[in-house]
Amino acid sequence: MLDFGIADAHLHLWDLDKLSYPWLKDNPFLNRTFALPEYNAACGGVRVDKMVFVQCEADTSLYREEAAWVTGLAASDPRIAGIVPWAPLEKGEGAEEDLAEFAKNPLVKGIRRIIEFEPDMDFCLKPDFIAGLKLLPKYGFSFDININYRHNRNVLRMLEKIPPVPCILDHIGKPPIRDRKLEPWKTEIRRMAEFPNLYCKVSSLATEGDHKNWTIDDIRPFSDAVFEAFGFDRVVFAGDWPVSSQAASFTVCVETLLELVKGAGRQELYKLFRTNAENFYRI
Fold it and tell me: Which fold has domain 6-281?
């Protein structure tokens, strides 16, 4: 499949005996513990050398505990080279205490504060949220942008306000693959790629399609648009396990992406599956 070890830039793990995840109650498929042994088995023949843990929407009172728990896991599996926890960036300058505390942990590389789930579509443009984002470079942190395509226009405006903040777009911005609706998402993605501080995770593609009936041809127009916009220098493979397993196994996710970039050279594949993640997350 690949003749080198990869960096997985988006791994989720949770233990229901350790922390509470309210959102899982509405998802029977995911409502159980997902631990490292299961992830290792899911990887099959894909050698994963490095992993970045991304926050899993634990109860919002437990975000520090989640980061501490994963830090403990990393002590026994040093392939966990980075952690991206939740932090209340909407507090503006009030978020600085959390950021300063996270900065004491060398594994913390960035912050994810999910925009997608906010009922207010203008959430990412609120002055306090922008102020919180602007604090991230002070601590050497990046920002994971988790949205769906409905937020694209506002995220473009957000990016205009935070040029020094290294950002990465999760899951190619969750386009409407299931509806096969390429525009205006494609045009908006092209505009996003004009911001040099923005990378893009090519992840969970099948998850945005029909979980049981997706085809590679459903995905191809969307993946083509991402590679046309970002090239191979700012795209990052991310497994999004176990969320992605609702539609495709980890190995199928890798095989699908390899088919979508068929014809790419080894150097381009190495960037996509390893060095771009290493460079962005500094792992």
Answer: TIM Barrel (3.20.20)
